[in-house]
From TrEMBL:
InterPro entries: DHPS-like_MBL-fold (IPR041712), Metallo-B-lactamas (IPR001279), Metallo-beta-lactamase_dom (IPR052926), RibonucZ/Hydroxyglut_hydro (IPR036866). Gene3D superfamilies: Ribonuclease Z/Hydroxyacylglutathione hydrolase-like. One of its GO terms (molecular function) is transferase activity. Residues 61-123 form the Metallo-beta-lactamase domain. It comes from freshwater metagenome. Pfam families: Lactamase_B (PF00753). This is Unannotated protein.
Length: 331
């Protein structure tokens, strides 16, 4: 019963605009925490490869996030070896990173975790030994055949056997000054950016699997919020709305990663782009499941240019204060 009501609500409500008061992007809240100053995000897994002999594309996502001297691996790609090889070809050493962020259970984001942990552990026992996840990520997801499709649950014991530890976040947490892991994101708007094909075995009972654990990184800077998203199942507008509530009511400076808009309707894209424009979006490095057409639609609707709204490739990056390095394929 609940499955039908969720779907019906989504189809009825999505095209509606102006559901909340216009956010005052010009009047950010006072800052009650440290702001990040030095920020760089480099893409390690996405569909396109950016330069010759510098990485391989795949249906997946991963990125290196560097903030004020600290580094995180953000998701781990789909195929076991992709991020390992791409990082090597890009000259990036992952062995000095201790913390991984896993945005949700799908195996196009978790596929490299064990390979990377084992490979980097040989150089540094603490490498990639702590994985930040949101509450609910280990709840089973049953497919039509009744078997569990949870892409992380199947690797949990093996990761823990290496000495790895999962840190489960039930709410938004500041991982380092100005760097926030959202935890589960309230679904304020019915963006419905998931497949709907699985049953979630939640403690409260069986539900449609709307990927409730889907979480993002939000980096708070003097220029505004930098959002890094894996697959965007919670919805980019929901995530931004939540970030502006729990981190700071500041403009969305940059949106980086997968936003699951590849199969969105024209109306959904129009609504999403309008909301992002309202939020103050300045940079978009859209990769993975964002969809190429969606990047261009948002670029046009939000008034961005080919310099600051780009289809992401392996090796492409965003640097605070400098903007996007698109590499050859997307420049
Ligand atoms: Zn996903
Ligand atoms: Zn994905």
């Amino acid at each position: 019963m609940r499955l039908l009501s969720l779907a019906a609500a989504a189809s009825l409500l999505l095209p509606v605009t102006g559901l909340t008061p216009t956010r005052a992007a010009s009047r950010p809240q006072p800052v009650d925490h440290a702001l990040a100053r030095d920020v760089k995000v480099t893409v390690l897994s996405t569909m396109l490869a950016g330069n010759p002999n510098r990485g391989t594309g795949e249906w997946g996502y991963a990125a290196l996030v560097e903030v004020d001297g600290r580094r995180w691996l953000f998701d781990t790609g789909a195929r076991p070896e992709t991020v390992l090889k791409n990082a090597a070809e890009l000259g990036i050493d992952l062995s000095t990173i201790t913390d991984v962020v896993i945005t949700h259970n799908h195996d196009d984001h978790t596929g490299g975790l064990l390979t990377l942990r084992r490979a980097m552990q040989a150089k540094n026992p603490a490498a990639l030994g702590r994985a930040h996840v949101a509450r609910g990520i280990f709840w089973p997801r049953l497919n039509a055949n009744g078997s569990d499709d949870n892409g992380l649950l199947k690797d949990r014991a093996a990761y823990e056997a290496t000495g790895g530890v999962f840190v489960e976040h039930a709410a938004a947490d500041e991982l380092a000054p100005g760097v926030w892991f959202t935890g589960p994101v309230p679904r304020t708007f019915p963006e419905r950016n998931w497949s709907g094909a699985r049953v979630l075995k939640a403690p409260a009972g069986d539900l449609e699997d709307n990927v409730p654990e889907d979480a993002s990184l939000v980096i708070d800077t003097a220029d505004g919020l930098v959002l890094v998203s894996g697959c965007g199942h919670a919805g980019i507008v929901n995530t931004v709305t939540y970030a502006q509530r729990v981190v700071r009511d500041a403009p969305l400076h940059a949106a980086i990663g997968g936003f699951h808009l590849f199969n969105a309707t024209d109306e959904q894209l129009e609504w999403t782009a309008g909301k992002l424009k309202e939020a103050g979006l300045t940079y978009l490095l859209g990769g993975h499941c964002t969809g190429i057409e969606a990047v261009y639609r948002i670029r046009a609707r939000a008034g961005l240019t080919r310099k600051n709204a780009v289809v992401s490739a392996v090796g492409s990056s965003f640097t605070l204060g400098k903007g996007i390095s698109a590499l050859s394929i997307a420049s």
